Amino acid sequence: AEDCLSRYSLEYLQKFTKAGKQFPKTTLRFARDHPLRIDFSSEHLSLSFLLAPRVETED
Q1: Residue extents of the structural domains in the chain
Q2: Which of 59, 4, 58 is nearest to 31 (CA)?
Q3: Residue 23 and residue 8: Cα distance in Å, rounded?
Q4: How many Å apart are CA 33 and CA 4, to the nearest integer?
Q5: pLDDT tens for each residue of 5-59
C-alpha cells in the first residue's frame, strides 16, 4: 500500500457526521486520486457522501 496525504474540509465532515448520526454503521473509503467516500447504513437505509480533497495551489 502506498502512503497518501489528503486534506478535507472539517466543515463538510462535521455536516456529514451530523447527518449520519442515526445510522449504526459507518464506512470510510479513501485512495490516492479519489475522493473520500463516507457510507452510513442501517438495515433498511443507506446514505453516502463524496468529498474531494482540498487543492492547495502555489502562488
Answers
A1: 10-51
A2: 4
A3: 22
A4: 9
A5: 888 999 999 999 999 999 999 999 988 888 999 999 999 999 999 999 988 777 6
